[in-house]
Design brief:
With 429 residues, the protein is an alpha/beta fold. It has helices at 16-24, 76-88, 107-120, 132-140, 153-174, 182-190, 193-196, 203-212, 246-249, 284-292, 311-321, 360-365, 391-404; strands at 3-8, 29-32, 41-45, 48-52, 65-68, 73-74, 97-99, 103-104, 200-201, 217-220, 258-266, 269-271, 305-307, 309-310, 325-329, 339-348, 351-353, 367-374, 408-412, 420-422. It folds into two domains: 3-94 and 202-422, Adenylosuccinate Synthetase, Chain A, domain 3 (Alpha-Beta Complex); 103-197, Adenylosuccinate Synthetase, subunit A, domain 2. A hairpin with a 7-residue loop joins strand 19 (408-412) and strand 20 (420-422). Helix 3 (107-120) packs across helix 4 and helix 5 (153-174) packs across helix 6 (182-190).
Length: 429
């Protein structure tokens, strides 16, 4: 079985955890290949709800080996907090593997993230303040600290000293904050070394050998396509590659091993933080979607911006990622609406544009062109086949499928683990 990539098709919070959980019993490894603890997702198992932030959602599936790969930035304190919280609830976390090459989020990354956002004021990106951006910046600037460095105190100290030489000048002279001591950072990171050591591995080698042995490996992207640092709504993006191409660089598995790309797309649209959002609703419909869909950040608790489904965004994601299958989530949230709008194109300065504009300025000023569909009032949370959905719900799903650039292979109809309608096998093609 080839490697399978699972990514978000919009601005995040599409329900990737639910989709991963749907596949969990059929895969051997679940790999997180980008991001950090800035993108939480909620997985419901029976009457239990689990909020995950840094860990791959596959950690909840018995028999699955969860992997934090090299493309992730790791806040070690958060890592152990999550592991302890899951262990206390009876979840086996002993199989977790962490890449020796993953970069570490330190206290100075968190500090810089917060003070930089405050200084930006109205121009703020809308980060979570978790230190993700500064950690990735250090990685690219080649002054980052990797997991493997924690096991060599001399190397660790040299790297922290090098990083703080510059950052303390910035904190003290520009941001009027106190300098951060090398000793306190080194001591904090060293305190995790022995607990961390059994988890650390050459995960690229482990995963490649697993694929050679016929194992099924699922690569789970954090954030989503429209937040990708290269292909998203820059600069209002995350600091890593959340698209399918990031699965190769973020894991050390060759791109020729990937054969299926599953994209999760919500039946409407949400985003957190600043940036363009053509279908955003600042009215009673937006509040309806927010309250009924419980659209509040898993990591931050921030209310999400809400809007109608954006078909050009879905098509863009299908093209950028090479999507073979869409998983449509939260269709049940639309139950009760008389009419449902779908953005089919944009009006940009009086000109109809059918695809996502390459110009950020044009996208910011794009006005959605809508097509209206009749809603439904029937409860769909108990549906397990497509034919059990109301006729109007079926028509809505088929219409957005035709607009979105790939087939819809599964439809989420409720928050419970089993509340899903499967149309096509996600792993068999």
């Amino acid at each position: 079985m080839p490697a399978v990539v699972l990514i978000g098709a919009q601005w995040g919070d599409e329900g990737k955890g639910k989709a991963t959980d749907l596949l969990g019993s059929r895969v051997d490894y679940v790999v997180k290949f980008n991001g950090g603890n800035n993108a939480g997702h909620t997985v419901v198992v029976g009457d239990q709800k689990y909020a995950l932030h840094l860990l791959p959602s596959g950690i909840l599936s018995p028999g699955v080996t969860p992997v934090i790969a090299n493309g992730v930035v790791v806040d070690i304190e958060v890592l152990f907090h999550e592991l302890e919280a899951l262990s206390s609830r009876g979840v086996d976390v002993s199989r977790l593997l962490v890449s020796a090459n993953a970069h570490v989020i330190t206290q100075y990354h968190r500090t810089l993230d917060k003070v930089t956002e405050r200084v930006l004021g109205k121009r703020m990106i809308g980060t979570t303040g978790r230190g993700i951006g500064p950690a990735y910046a250090d990685k690219i600037n080649r002054v980052g600290i990797r997991i493997q460095d924690i096991f060599d105190e001399n190397i660790l100290r040299q790297k922290v000293e090098g990083a703080l030489d510059q950052k303390n000048h910035l904190l003290v002279k520009i941001y009027n904050r106190r300098a951060i001591g090398v000793d306190e950072v080194v001591a904090d990171l060293l305190s995790y070394a022995e607990r961390l050591r059994p988890m650390v591995a050459d995960t690229g080698l482990v995963l490649s050998r697993a694929l050679d042995d016929g194992k099924t490996v699922l690569f789970e992207g954090g954030q989503a396509t429209m937040l990708d640092v290269d292909h998203g709504t820059y600069p209002f993006v995350t600091s890593s590659n959340a698209t399918s191409g990031g699965a190769a660089t973020g894991s050390g598995v060759a791109p020729t091993r990937f054969e299926r790309v599953i994209a999760v797309v919500k039946a409407y649209t949400t985003r957190v933080g600043s940036g363009p959002f053509p279908t955003e609703l600042n009215d009673e419909f937006g509040e309806y979607l927010r309250s009924k869909g419980f659209e509040f950040g898993t990591t931050t608790g921030r209310p999400r911006r809400t809007g109608w489904y954006d078909a050009p965004v879905a098509r863009y994601s299908a093209r950028i990622n090479g999507v073979t299958d869409f998983v449509l989530t939260k269709l049940d949230v639309l139950t009760g609406l008389d009419r449902i709008q779908v953005c089919v194109a944009y009006d940009v300065d009086g000109v109809r544009v059918d695809e996502v504009p390459v110009s950020q300025t044009d996208f910011h000023h794009a006005v959605p062109i809508y097509e209206s569909f009749p809603g439904w009032t029937e409860d769909i949370t108990g549906a397990r086949t497509f034919d059990e959905l109301p006729v109007n719900a079926q028509a809505y799903a088929r219409a957005i499928e035709a607009m979105s650039g790939s087939r819809i292979s599964a439809i989420g109809v409720g928050p419970d683990r089993e509340a899903i309608v499967v149309l096509h096998d996600l792993l068999e093609g």
